[in-house]
Amino acid sequence: MTFDRLDLVSKLYQPSGWPRILEAASGAPSGGPLVVDLDPTTFCDLACPECISGKLLNQGRFTPERLAELAHELVEMSVRGVVLIGGGEPLAHRGTRTVLRVLGEAGIAIGVVTNGTLIKQNLAELAEYASWVRISVDAGTSETYRLFRPDRKGNSVFDKVIGNMRLLAEAKKGALGYSFLVMTRREPDGTIVSNHHEVLQAAELAHDIGCDYFETKAMFDDGHHVVQVAPEILASVEEQLRAAARWEDDSFEIVNSSTLTSLRSRVGPVQEKDYHRCRVAELRTLVTPSGVYVCSYHRGNDGAKIGDAVTDSLAEIWRNSDRGIVDPSRDCRFHCARHRSNLELEKIGAGTAAPEPGSDYDPFI
């Protein structure tokens, strides 16, 4: 890999986004977001017990016509990157293929977070236009997949997902990632089930499929706080990741998320913040069928809702909304991946940062 995809602070200094970075750093409203998270739908074909969006699922979707309009509005707003995510399963919407094509042909970078069950139906557009596709697998075998990512009938579609990933690996122009969320669950009878023992097996499978990276993450609770795990589980994960490093080369990377770093440091569920305005909220936003929110951490939170993209244009929402309705010191006490970016933006605004001249390499700040 030629860059650290998780180094969000360095990404602030890319030339094409710099004018809006300066707007946000000043504490003033920006002319528009650089990156938009877009939920095409709240529907999902899986029934994962630990789904953090479980309470928000199956509550609506954009019409295909409105979804296509949103894609054109994003182009008109000069958005640099769009992440198709959820909420629900983004590839479950029949209009997602149009979004991929409209954004891709306009030169906008596209990320896709998916469960992988519907890759085949969207293969041509994903292969041609997606900058990266990250598959939430969270297992290395079909049986463990069934425990944590069952379909609505309680069955495992693991083999289907892996087969779809192989198809995309052969055809893709962008990057393909295998995501592994370390999960532990206490069953009603008191027994503990976990997927942590399959990290190494999953990493080997990711390498075999032809993925570009394998990412390990920690669970969040409903309040987006990182869920700590027993020391022996963390030690096991660490040992497996060290063993998985044998497959790393120029075409395959083991990625450690910020949540895994939080587990290692045992910092606890609360991340204190002493600033009252999220400057990153001027650079990123979340668009869903139920509303437009200041960020994905606040999906479904009416206190962080800034508009309704079903009825209003994104440009109008941005022009008329106050992204300062969320106070990070009060409302964002969880571990935010962009906390360090906010601190850096404060430095940029104060003139105490020392930006290094750079080039555009990854718009997903």
TrEMBL record:
<protein>
    <submittedName>
        <fullName>Radical SAM protein</fullName>
    </submittedName>
</protein>
<keyword id="KW-0411">Iron-sulfur</keyword>
<keyword id="KW-0479">Metal-binding</keyword>
<dbReference type="GO" id="GO:0051536">
    <property type="term" value="F:iron-sulfur cluster binding"/>
</dbReference>
<dbReference type="GO" id="GO:0003824">
    <property type="term" value="F:catalytic activity"/>
</dbReference>
<dbReference type="InterPro" id="IPR050377">
    <property type="entry name" value="Radical_SAM_PqqE_MftC-like"/>
</dbReference>
<keyword id="KW-0949">S-adenosyl-L-methionine</keyword>
<dbReference type="InterPro" id="IPR007197">
    <property type="entry name" value="rSAM"/>
</dbReference>
<dbReference type="InterPro" id="IPR013785">
    <property type="entry name" value="Aldolase_TIM"/>
</dbReference>
<keyword id="KW-0408">Iron</keyword>
<dbReference type="InterPro" id="IPR058240">
    <property type="entry name" value="rSAM_sf"/>
</dbReference>
<dbReference type="GO" id="GO:0046872">
    <property type="term" value="F:metal ion binding"/>
</dbReference>
<dbReference type="Pfam" id="PF04055">
    <property type="entry name" value="Radical_SAM"/>
</dbReference>
<feature type="domain" description="Radical SAM core">
    <location>
        <begin position="30"/>
        <end position="264"/>
    </location>
</feature>
